[in-house]
Specification:
Helix content is about 50%, strand content about 15%. The chain is of the alpha/beta class and about 240 residues long. The chain has two domains: about 140 residues, Response regulator (Rossmann fold, 3-Layer(aba) Sandwich), CATH 3.40.50.2300; about 60 residues, Winged helix-like DNA-binding domain superfamily/Winged helix DNA-binding domain (Arc Repressor Mutant, subunit A), CATH 1.10.10.10. A six-stranded parallel β-sheet has the order 2-1-3-4-5-6, sandwiched between helices. α4 crosses α6, α7 crosses α9 and α8 crosses α9. The protein is elongated and about 70 Å long. Keywords: DNA-binding, Phosphoprotein, Transcription, Transcription regulation.
């Protein structure tokens, strides 16, 4: 059975080109086209597609209509796959697209659409519940994540970084307190502040310690002197 596709693109020339590619592809059937968010949502209701291929920026606001439609589909028609086409490798848009899961989602740069196989492969992949992310977008996500981690660690006070460095050795609060000549209550307070600044407040305590240490080590820091460098849990 052919994969049913609805295409949304406000640029007439590009829409015609993409429609032709899809119509000529084996195993794909173009069942509808749209030029803005309202007409795209209506086309989905009318044609019940397996996959939506959409530009990110379309009328009426020309901001993130494609991402918003993907979110709407995730809630209302979770079985429908979405291929988002973008002019730029926007990490923020990619993260929004993948919110709620990566299954059945693809993010491609429009410049890649010139490679017909990339688009058709992405359509078939999301129809099967898989995900496809353009390599340039992946690089942007990695860079954004690295910047976020460094920014969060930079918010720690010198004492908090010292406590985290000893956490990286797998030391308990009592052991850290003894080494830094602090009360256990003070170490606990510093630890909770570290978790809050790293966005780990909703995690179980053991998970918070491990994730905090991973962020610390992956940012290029090293444990306090005497550590093996392994991510350990407190004993």
């Amino acid at each position: 059975m052919a994969v049913r596709v609805v295409l949304a693109e406000d640029n007439a020339l590009l829409r015609h080109g993409l429609a032709t590619l899809i119509e000529r592809a084996d195993g794909l059937e173009l069942v509808g086209t749209a030029t803005d968010r309202p007409s795209l949502e209506q086309a989905v209701r009318d044609h019940d597609p397996d996959v939506v291929v959409t530009d990110i920026r379309m009328p009426p606001s020309r901001s993130d209509e494609g991402i918003k439609v993907a979110g709407w589909l995730r809630r209302e028609r979770p079985a429908v796959g979405v291929v988002v086409l973008s002019q730029h490798a926007e990490a923020t848009y990619a993260l929004a697209l993948l919110e709620g899961g990566s299954s059945g989602r693809a993010y491609l740069l429009k410049e890649r659409v010139a490679g017909v196989d990339d688009l058709l492969r992405a359509i078939r992949a999301v129809a099967a519940g898989e995900s496809v992310i353009d390599p340039a977008v992946v690089e942007g996500l990695v860079a954004a994540n690295a910047r976020r981690q460094h920014t969060e660690l930079d918010r720690l006070t010198p004492r908090e970084r010292e406590v985290l460095s000893h956490m990286a050795q797998g030391w308990s609060n009592a052991a850290i307190a003894g080494t830094l000549v602090l009360s256990e209550r003070a170490v606990e307070k510093h630890s909770n502040s570290i978790f809050a600044k790293l966005g780990l407040t909703d995690e179980p305590d053991l998970n918070r310690r491990v994730k905090a240490v991973l962020l610390y080590l992956h940012s290029g820091h090293r444990p306090a002197s005497g550590s093996t460098g392994k991510v350990a849990t407190p004993t």
